[in-house]
TrEMBL record:
Name of the protein in its database record: BrnT family toxin
Key words of the record: Plasmid
Annotated source species: Saccharobesus litoralis
Length: 44
């Protein structure tokens, strides 16, 4: 999860090839539940 363009929170799925090539498979805005779960992971 991270900040991307104008989306405050986003989910990005990617793969790494040969150690220095990153291929983005999917990128979308995070749901409210995903943001909440992500924020709670820092409280524990």
């Amino acid at each position: 999860m991270g900040v991307w363009l104008n989306w405050l929170n986003s989910i990005v799925v990617y793969t790494e090839r040969d150690g220095d090539i990153i291929r983005i498979i999917s990128a979308r805005k995070a749901t409210k539940q995903e943001v909440k779960r992500y924020e709670q992971s820092f409280k524990n």
